[in-house]
Design brief:
The complex is a heterodimer of chains A (90) and B (417). By secondary structure, chain A is mainly beta. In chain A, 9% of the residues lie in helices and 37% in strands. In chain A, a hairpin with a 4-residue loop joins strand 1 and strand 2. With 417 residues, chain B is an alpha/beta fold. Helices cover 28% and strands 23% of the residues of chain B. The longest helix of chain B has 16 residues. The chains are: A mainly beta (90), B alpha/beta (417). Chains A and B meet through strand 3 and helix 1 of A and helix 11 of B.
Chain lengths: 90, 417
């Protein structure tokens, strides 16, 4: 089980307080009706799924309830850092 | 290659089982092949076998980064069934179940396919309605599936608790009698041996590091840790690592890779006659011929290539097992392990051509690829040989994520199996 630093609570808590919420920094389209089918496919379904460094969203669901982002290595499962939602990609 | 038979077993037994010859040669890579299969699991080895056997393409190499059958083929819980909801899926999975029949004879290798029945438990009104819908849909597609009352379920699987006061009482079950289990290792070994006998090179400890494409965009071969190997046709059957391989060809795929765990108990005498699955409390179990209870856990929630999962996932699964089968509450678990499964957004596989000429893919089987091994292998071979998908795998194309014709099997695949 992971121990995850919540950037809002500023506490290290066990994974079962958190919910994983998929890849981070996927921006919702500003003008949905202008998107082509290929762009919709990319937005909805295509994921980086890298072997290595991964930017991902977590939610401290049994804590502050807020979404934040994290960088984790998908081979070692080690967290590099966590940072608040809205901050630039690390 | 010696054919295995009762006689050969008997005569070798007289000699103390010494003198068995190597089952297939450890091939070294040649400069080029007609077709390369990336990934030496059951699906990949099977595809090479069917390419040689059914489509006459024998200059084939299977390239495996580790040892054959060491990925998800050796890590799954060996369950075979075809009770999927939609027509496309029913045809796809039933194609595989039909090939499981007679596979041992065809490969001259005992895959230990045992039609012991797969029983899926219903614990609430939604389950009952959903399973009955599945049963009717299956029967319309010629796939056997039947409804059992709690008493009938108990009779079919005596260790099952049908206590009406349970937290999640059993309200009934859907039973596919043709479903069952097979020995996973022998599937890889059987295909490897049969393919090698037809001239296929099985190259282990050889990781693909890049896919080389020509000026026209078509594939020319693969760069590997053991040098360049040329081929005009490449079939990728790399399960959890498919995204990584596809990026080498410049393709982004709608896949995410998750760790999926399984575990076995200490071996005990035969007590568990079938496979039981419960989507609602999330557990499933069978007993291997060695006597171990084989238990499948769920996936972790995050993307990972680590081939191991968290302990709390296993604890959750075992709590469910103890709830449904109180008889096993004092069993001790022997081993647990994890594999990396590639999951698509609609929980159906991607099996067919890709936008890159000469590159074919068989991926996205998520948590349930073992049951499809012979079918997926056969259809990948067909697609590679004919350069077009078979009508069974045509709906499982990559375009469906663009045109919206998804095959949403999240309900059938709800329990990681």
């Amino acid at each position: 089980m992971f121990l995850i630093d919540c950037p809002y609570c500023e506490e290290r808590r066990p994974e079962n307080e958190f919910a994983y919420a998929g890849e981070a920094h996927i921006a919702r389209p500003l003008d949905p009706s202008a998107l082509s089918d290929a762009e919709w496919e990319t937005y909805l379904f295509i994921r980086a799924n890298p072997r290595g460094r991964h930017n991902e969203r977590w939610r401290h669901i049994h804590g502050c309830g807020r979404f934040f982002n994290a960088v984790r290595d998908t081979v070692t499962d080690k967290f590099e850092c966590t940072y608040k939602a809205g901050e630039a990609r690390r | 290659m010696t054919r295995f038979s009762a006689l050969s077993l008997f005569t070798k037994a007289l000699g103390g089982h010494k003198g068995w010859e190597q089952q297939w040669p450890d091939a070294q890579p040649k400069p080029s092949y007609d077709a390369i299969i990336v990934g030496g699991g059951g699906h990949g080895l099977g595809a090479a076998y069917y390419l040689a056997r059914k489509y006459g393409i024998t200059r084939v190499a299977v390239i495996e980064k580790g040892w054959i059958g060491g990925g998800n083929t050796g890590r799954n819980t060996t369950i075979i069934r075809s009770n999927y909801l939609y027509d496309e899926s029913a045809h796809l999975y039933d194609h595989a179940v039909k090939l499981w029949d007679g596979l041992s004879q065809e490969l001259n290798y005992n895959t230990m396919y045992s039609k012991r029945g797969v029983m899926m438990l219903a614990h609430n009104v939604h389950d009952v309605q959903s399973f009955k819908r599945h049963i009717h849909a299956n029967r319309l597609n010629g796939v056997d599936n039947e409804w059992l009352t709690p008493d009938e379920a108990k009779e079919y699987c005596p260790p099952l608790s049908i206590d009406p006061n349970a937290r999640y009482p059993v309200l009934g079950a859907a039973l596919q009698r043709r479903g069952g289990t097979a020995r996973h290792d022998t599937v890889a070994w059987g295909y490897a041996r049969a393919a090698a006998a037809l001239g296929v090179d099985i190259i282990q400890n050889c990781a693909v590091t890049d896919i080389r494409r020509g000026p026209d965009g078509a594939v020319e071969g693969v760069e590997t840790t053991r040098g360049f190997i040329g081929a005009k046709k490449i079939g990728v059957s790399a399960a959890g690592n498919t995204s990584v391989i596809m990026k080498m060809a410049g393709l982004d795929f709608p896949l995410e890779s998750y760790p999926l765990q399984a575990l076995v108990s200490e071996p005990i005498k035969p007590v568990f006659p079938c496979v039981v699955m419960s989507n609602t409390v999330h557990a499933y179990m069978s007993q291997s011929d060695k006597g171990e209870l084989v238990i499948g856990a769920g996936t972790d929630q995050y993307v990972s290539y680590s081939q191991r999962g968290a302990l709390h996932i296993i604890e959750h699964t075992l709590a469910s097992i103890c709830e449904i089968f109180p008889i096993f509450r004092r069993m001790r678990m022997l081993r647990s392990w994890g594999g990396v499964v590639d999951v698509t957004p609609d929980r159906s596989p991607i099996l067919g051509k890709t936008p890159v000429r000469g590159l074919y893919v068989n991926c996205g089987w998520g948590t349930g690829g073992f049951k499809a091994t012979p079918g997926a292998a056969d259809l990948l071979a067909y697609t590679i040989a004919r350069d077009e998908p078979h009508r069974i795998n045509a709906p499982f194309n990559l375009d469906r994520f663009r045109n919206g014709r998804l095959i949403d099997e999240a309900a059938a695949a709800a329990v990681a199996h």
